[in-house]
Automatic annotation (TrEMBL):
Homology family: Belongs to the UbiA prenyltransferase family.
Keywords assigned: Cell inner membrane, Cell membrane, Magnesium, Membrane, Transferase, Transmembrane, Transmembrane helix, Ubiquinone biosynthesis
Protein name: 4-hydroxybenzoate octaprenyltransferase
Gene3D superfamilies in the cross-refs: UbiA prenyltransferase (1.20.120.1780)
Pathway: Cofactor biosynthesis; ubiquinone biosynthesis
Function of the protein: Catalyzes the prenylation of para-hydroxybenzoate (PHB) with an all-trans polyprenyl group. Mediates the second step in the final reaction sequence of ubiquinone-8 (UQ-8) biosynthesis, which is the condensation of the polyisoprenoid side chain with PHB, generating the first membrane-bound Q intermediate 3-octaprenyl-4-hydroxybenzoate.
MF terms (GO), sorted A to Z: 4-hydroxybenzoate polyprenyltransferase activity
Organism of derivation: Psittacicella gerlachiana
Catalytic activity entry: all-trans-octaprenyl diphosphate + 4-hydroxybenzoate = 4-hydroxy-3-(all-trans-octaprenyl)benzoate + diphosphate
Major location (coarse): membrane
A UniProt-annotated Pfam family: UbiA
Annotated TM spans: 42-63, 84-106, 137-156, 162-185, 206-227, 233-251, 271-288
Xref: InterPro entries: HB_polyprenyltransferase-like (IPR006370), Prenyltransferase (IPR039653), UbiA_prenyltransferase (IPR000537), UbiA_prenylTrfase_CS (IPR030470), UbiA_sf (IPR044878)
Its membrane topology: Multi-pass membrane protein
Amino acid sequence: MIQNPYIRLMRFDKPVGTLLLLFPTLMALLMATDGIPDIKSAVIFTLGVIITRAAGCILNDIADRKIDNQVERTKNRPLANKEISVFSALILFSFLAVFGLVLLYFLPVKTYVWAGLCIILMVIYPLSKRFFAIPQLFLGLAFSMPIPMVYANYGVNPFTDLNALLLFFANVAWTIAYDTQYAIADMDDDLKSGKIYTSAITFGKKVNFIVFSFNFVYLALLTILGFLNSFSYLFYVGLGINLLWFIYHYFAVDRFVGETGFKAFMQNIQIGWITLWALALGLIGMQAHKYQENLNLSQPIVSQPETQVVTNPEDLQNNQ
C-alpha cells in the first residue's frame, strides 16, 4: 500500500478509474479522426483524463468523508481517517484545476462548454448520492463528457453527429453497469448507514438483470456504430467476447457477496481494452473498404469496339 496520502487521495495508486475514463476518450479520438488522431490532441486529452479523474476523486472524498469512515473498504481513505485536512485537499484540487485550465487553453473554444458541463457533473455526482436513487447516472454522464469534447475539438457538432451520439449513450450505459457492480461491494455498509443511495440498492434483487440490460444496450449501440461505418468483422468478434463477459457477470455476481461485484467491476478493464482494440481493428476495415471503393471509382472504363453481328447472308454479300 502506498503511504503518501496525497497520492492515495488522487487514486494514482489505483488507475482503474483513470482507464475507465480513458477508454471512451480514446475511442472518440479514433472515431472522430477515422483512426488517425493528431499527437497534440491525444496528449492533451490523455493528460486531461488523468487530471479530471484525480480532481473528481478529491471532490468525491470531501463529500463522502463522513460516510467513508463507516465503510470497511473506504475507511482508510486519507480524508476519512483524517490523514489530510479538507483545506489541504481543496488546495490540491485547486492546483489540479489550474493544470486542467492550462490544458483547456490549447483546445478550441467550442470544447469549453463541454468541459464546464463535466465540472458541474463532477460536483453533482457525490452530492446526488444523498437524494437521487441512481447517482450512477450522473457518473455515466460525467465519464462520457470527453466524447463530445473530442468531437468539438475537431469542429464536429456532437449533437448532430450520429457516431458521437452512439458512443456517448453507449458509454453512459456501460458506466452505469460497471459502477453498479462497484456499488455492490459496499451495499451492506451503505444500507447500514442509511444516508446514501446507489443503483445497487435501488435495483434490489433485479440488479444483475438490470446491469446486463445496460451492458446489452452498450453492445447494441456499438453494433449499430459498426454497421453504419462498415467496420470489419473483427469489431464484432470483440463485441461477442464482451457479450460472453457480460453473461458471465450475470451468473457470477451475488448481490449479497460484495467481493463478487468488485471482481466483476475490475474485469471491466479487460472489457474496455477489448472494445478499444476492436474499434481500432474495425476502423482499419472501414479504411480498407473506402480504399477499395475509391480504387474502383478511379479505374477508367475501357470501351470495347463495336462489332456488327450479321444474321442475314444477303447483308454479308452487300457489305462485300
